[in-house]
Amino acid sequence: FLTSLHLPPIVGELAMRQQRFFEHTMHPLSLFFQAVVIFPLWEETFYRGMILQLLRRYAPAWLAVLITTLFFGVTHLGQGWVTALNATLFGGVFAWLTIKTRSIFPSMLCHAAANFAWFFLLGPAFGITEKILNETALKTSLLPSVLTWYFPAWWMLVSLGLVGAAFGLITRESTKSRVAI
Length: 181
What we know:
mainly alpha
């Protein structure tokens, strides 16, 4: 696909490097090992285990969460604005989960589950990977209907409802466990 595009040499070279990277990483076993095992372990240890905890010593919790969330999102900008936006949103959830549970293990597990769902369930089901690759290769600056370009609107509403229910359950359970102690 990318070899048939007529892009300026610099953009074409970047697109070819990205294509080789994606061909390597899109092998299912390699992708699973990287996205579901290595990246959640490394990223959660670094962002939530080290950076968040360091910032919490010198700043209020909300500021530490905000800084680590934005830092996590910015470091994913090289993979496109959609990935960076997702990383920012998930980074906030993972930071909140780390603070609520006082452990990085739940955030590691959620990170692995989110990556698995993204790469092995949602990406193939909705053709998201191809859309992101096309957007990255073409460097499109026109934003299509953001809510329906990657996912149908009904999927977004169901997902938001499930995330809200999960937050409610986690908050209720953590409140019960504090009262029981």
